[in-house]
Each structure stands twice: as C-alpha cells, then as structure tokens.
C-alpha cells in the first residue's frame, strides 16, 4: 500500500516540489519551522502557504540547509528558533518526577517496548506526563516570550488540529489525543530533536523529556489502523561517519534500531546526496502525512525497537562516493 494523504486530511501538499529532510534518527535538516507559522497565525486567519510554499525547517547542527532549492523564507522568520536547555523549568520537572526521567526509567521503557511490541500503549499517567513535558519544552522556546504565545496556547492549537482530524476519521477516534499530538510534534523542528534518539544507548538522553515524547509517539504509531501501513520500499539518507554505520550494519545480520527511523515513500521525497543512503523494505512502517505539519513529505515512520535485516552494503563512487545499504524490516 502506498503512502499518500487521506481524503480526510486537513493538510495539503505544498505547491512546490517536496524538499523532504528525512534521515536516520529523523534529522530535519532544512531551515525554519512551519509550526511557528501555525502558532502565530492560526488565530489571525493568515494562510500558511501565502508565500507559495512552506517555510523550510531548522538545519540539524553541523549541516547546511539546501539553500539553492529552499523556499523563500519571510523576513518574519529570518532568525532561527533557539532554545535555552537545560532550563530551570525542565530541572524542576525532572526533580519532581525522578521516577519518570532517569536512566532506570529509560531502561524500563525499552524493556516494556521489547516485551509488548505493537501492543505498547500509553496509560493515562503517561499521557499527562507527555503534556507536562510538552509544556515544559515549549516554555524553553523564545517563541513564548518573543511572540507572546503561552505553552498552553501552543498545546491547544495542536489539540484543535488533532481533534479536527479525528472528527473526520472515525477509525482513529479511539486514539488518545495526547498521543496524536505527540506524533504531530514529531514533525515539528522545535520538538523532534529532543526525542529522535531518546532511546538509543543506555545513558539518559541530553533532554530527558524525550522519554515522555517517545512513549506517546510509539503508542500513536501502534494504534494507527492498517490503512496507515506502508508495504514496500522506503528511502532515506543521512551524513553519518561510515565507521559508525559499518559497525551497525553487517550483510546477512539483523540489528535493532532504538532511534525513530524516518523515511519517505518515494526517492523523490527522500533526502538525497548524503554519505549514506538506505533503501528499506517496509512491512509495517506507518504513513504519518495525515498528522504531519509537512504532509507533502509522505513520511513513513518506524518506532524505536524495530528490527532490520541488512541485505547488501555497497560503496559507490559515481556520481559521488557514498554508502548504499539495502535492508528489510523484520517482524
């Protein structure tokens, strides 16, 4: 089944060709965030597509945006959104709920995901925990003071969008709104960095709030009905040290990826011209365009804990030097 935008989706493709920024760990490489535009103009009636295309997203650290092809960025968004982390507010939250934001909590969560698989779901406590984490994280953004948007107002905007999508799609009304807010926030450049690698390794992530996001996003992906499954090939690329990649991938061997693995359903939408490119055969990756701020990307997302079998590793030198990896999802 292909990955496309549902007829009930409230999102629409961009007028210009997609400039998707997928990568392992779901780096979103391009320059400024559309959700900023939504935050500031959802109440004013201004269109998010008035410039003819979506403002691109923040580049990941150490990576340049595709400036030659990037849509024009309005002067209003000329300065990147920045954060002051770790903040006192985040410290207060982690100190108040130490059992939720610790190395032990991370280990326990990974074990629970491994044991429950696709049956993993959030509890009511988990969902309230995510909401606290969301508000805490938004409070670190200068948007809240620079543009007079309170964290509560930002959360309400997300909830309004998700509830509108749920009202048009009866088969997802059973999914908690908080979980779907987390899934939508994954596509926002102001949120995804704290969660994309939150479950990798054994140590506590740089921002422990990512654990709360991870629970809710995984729960949402697991709860989406079968019509969201993409069966077939998906594509992505990233700039990663080759020794690190080759340490993980061995031809004919399986591995478990504890990062969120973001891909595109077509090569045209995938991040290209990177040092490493993956082609993956998906059996249960979920199409999330319906919930994405950047629906035109046709993103297919795999949760942490997904297993893959590496089929082929090729070093290619034409038209450039890069590593090509062919793999398949293992159920």
Summarize this structure briefly.
This protein has 331 residues and is of the alpha+beta class. It contains nine helices and seven strands, in the order H-H-H-H-H-H-H-H-E-H-E-E-E-E-E-E. It has helices at residues 34-41, 88-96, 103-116, 124-139, 143-146, 151-168, 177-186, 210-223, 242-248, and strands at 229-238, 254-257, 261-264, 276-287, 299-302, 306-316, 322-330.
Number of helices: 9
Number of domains: 1
Oligomer: single chain
CATH topology title: Toxin ADP-ribosyltransferase, Chain A, domain 1
Class per helix and strand makeup: alpha+beta
Helical residue percent band: 25-40%
**CATH homologous superfamily designation:** Toxin ADP-ribosyltransferase, Chain A, domain 1
- The CATH architecture can be given as Alpha-Beta Complex
The total beta strand count reads: 7
- Report on the biggest sheet: 7 strands, mixed
| N-to-C series of helices and strands | HHHHHHHHEHEEEEEE
CATH hierarchy, class: Alpha Beta
Spans of at least 5 consecutive residues whose pLDDT stays below 50 are 5-85
Radius of gyration (Å) = 19 Å
Report how far apart the termini are. 17 Å
Shape: globular
Average pLDDT taken over every residue: 77
Percent in strands: 15-25%
